Amino acid sequence: MAFTRATGKHRRPSRMHRTTARAAGVAALATTGVVGTLAAPALAAESEVEQSGLTPVVTIGDSIADEIDAQAVAQKQAALDAAAQEAARERAAEAAKEAREAKERAAREAERKRLNTFVAPITASYVSTAYQAGSSLWSSGSHTGIDFHASSGTTVHAVGVGTVVEAGWGGAYGNQVVIKMHDGTYTQYGHLSSIGVSVGQSVEPGQQIGLSGATGNVTGPHLHFEARTSSEYGSDMDPVSYLRSHGVNV
Ligand SMILES: [Zn+2]
């Protein structure tokens, strides 16, 4: 691009044009009604510039100013576009973060609910022999668990989340399952007619772990249920209190 440009393409008058026009106007006013012939040189002076067809070098200032203006506008627009894009990215990131957090909250809530869900080992049954009831039937002389009324073949449920640590013959308990619960306590299910889980298996609240029966030292079919602080015989605690403390209605 040359330092000069055709005057006809100007969007607005250059400083030189404005100056020239003013000079011509002043000259015209000065000569009006005084000496008519004096107007001619002033008009000639202006026409000399106009007729050159080129804008004098002094208009470079305007040209550069225009370009700087255009650049500034373009840069400002680019900055606005970048800011808008950044804001959109931030909104998208924030929305993704909120969705992720909501999902994590829901997962934590579901896990908390799962870990805190407890059910009765026999559905819609009742305790037929209480905890610590005395009888010559038990080697300790005292009942270490509770018996739930259940005919043979009734579904026996894991009372909560845990891992099977024993599944097999348990002497006086007959076929038994012992589960280590997620809170570190143990539950035991005895006299089963069949066992449906194996050692190491994870169980969920209400999951079927076997069927009730009359195996071991019994006078008839029922489910013997114990809650223990360890997997060992003798670490029993009150199973009714245990179940009730976990929200089971027994
Ligand atoms: Zn019992």
Write up this protein.
By secondary structure, this protein is α+β, with helices and mostly antiparallel strands. It has 2 domains: 13-115, no CATH class; 127-245, Glucose Permease (Domain IIA). Helices cover 38% and strands 19% of the residues. It has 4 helices and 11 strands. The strands form 2 sheets. Strands 1, 2, 4, 5, 6, 8, 10 and 11 form an 8-stranded antiparallel sheet that branches. A 3-stranded antiparallel sheet has the order 3-9-7, with no helix packed on it. It is rod-shaped, with a radius of gyration of 49 Å. Residues 23-49 have low confidence and may be disordered. Zinc ion is lined by residues 129, 143, 145, 147, 224.
What is the structure about, briefly put?
The protein is an alpha+beta fold and 250 residues long. It is built from 4 helices and 11 strands, in the order H-H-H-E-E-E-E-E-E-E-E-E-E-E-H. The chain folds into 2 domains: 13-115, no CATH class; 127-245, Glucose Permease (Domain IIA).
Throw out a few tags for this protein.
250 residues, alpha+beta, Glucose Permease (Domain IIA), 2 domains, eight-stranded antiparallel beta sheet, three-stranded antiparallel beta sheet, 4 helices, 38% helix, rod-shaped, binds zinc ion
